[in-house]
Amino acid sequence: AKARVAVIGGGYGGATAAKYVRLLSDYRIDVVLIEPNEAFVSCPISNLVIGGSRQIAHITTPYDGLARKHGVRVVRDMATAVDTRRKTITLASGATMAYDKLIMAPGIELDFAAVEGLQPAHAAGQVLHAWKAGPETLALRRQLEAMPDGGVYAITVPEQPYRCPPGPYERACQVAWYFKHAKPRSKVLILDANQDVTSKGALFKKVWAGQYQGMIEYRPQHKVAAVDARAGVLKFEVQDDVKASVLNVVPPMRAGRIAGQSGLANVNGRWCGVDYLTFESAVAKDVHVLGDSIQLAPLMPKSGHMANSHAKVAAAAVVAQLAGWPVNPAPMLTNTCYSYVDDRNVVHVASVHSYVAAEKTFKTVPGSGGLSPAPNEMEGIYAWNWAQNIWADTLA
Ligand code: FAD
Where is the Sulfide dehydrogenase [flavocytochrome c] flavoprotein chain central domain (predicted)? Predict the structure, then answer.
């Protein structure tokens, strides 16, 4: 019988892995992709939808390319349980599915319990995170549109590690860009649990002091402890309360729920440890975990570009192991994260990581990568084309 690879999660990691297992096996391995959403909605570029310079249609791609062009069987369902010993998956619809290899890529779960009052405020649609692109992206945009001029938008940033290190700072720029032309008396407050801006810090701070002078205020060491949605108040572990018109609380994160439920989150009960050579789980054989769910080596951000890169290494390893071939002993990963500071000017950070066998980890290649000197329009063009290319690589 043909080998079957099941993939849980059709995001940047899972969709790429599904396609590349098909490609690298010359279409000899059956691939089933389990994903509840009807279409892929990208987090990268979603901050521009919040800022208003792009529409949700620009960041939405259907899943049919994977089926039509690559013969991936896309099952619109949710995995509710995995038995890693018997190698079976249970779906929300009740069906059970067996696999030879499982690729687990469910992204992140938001830890609402870490912030008192957040769960009910989020369920009522009052306090949003918009850290998974889709309906919540639009709902946050509507909150900003409804806010009167002179109001305050506050975003809280969780401690590292979290999905997309520069994401909150890019979002602050996008909201300020919108305020600047639509509600110029309004303010953006960044309340950061970290000691400082952890990604592209000098570049962002220059933009805040320059084109958004007097509009964006940055406060480090603000770890949010509680939210009172009715009063519009955020409470912190140490610092004074903050009142704002729109509260955008991005809580701490952990591996996607199904990864935790399947017993794969062996690092602090939060993230999934893997063998970086193959992305095979540290605790379950024939289960490969990738994307935001994994415990990352130092200097490896949780990004869509990285998830796409993990997926190719994992897909090659899965195909090799099923065929009885040796795995690639020297995989490489790349990353580029672009951030839009307004509707067209962009900054980037890039890195290249190679596997170091002696230490069983990835390390950045000396002299590789880099950082923009300053925001510029040319990188705005690169950023937009990066998005078109990675969506095509992942889904078409
Ligand atoms: P995801 O892409 O989230 O995919 C996980 C998928 O699994 C989802 O489709 C989900 O529906 C599915 N799933 C979950 N549970 C189950 C289950 N039980 N059964 C079946 N399916 C399930 N990265 C960049 O590289 N560049 C950027 O510019 C960038 N900008 C960003 C901006 C913002 C505002 C945010 C929030 C993130 C940004 N990122 C960016 C980060 C990027 O979005 C993530 O790192 C990336 O999505 C991780 O890929 P993933 O496959 O691990 O998870």
Answer: 137-251
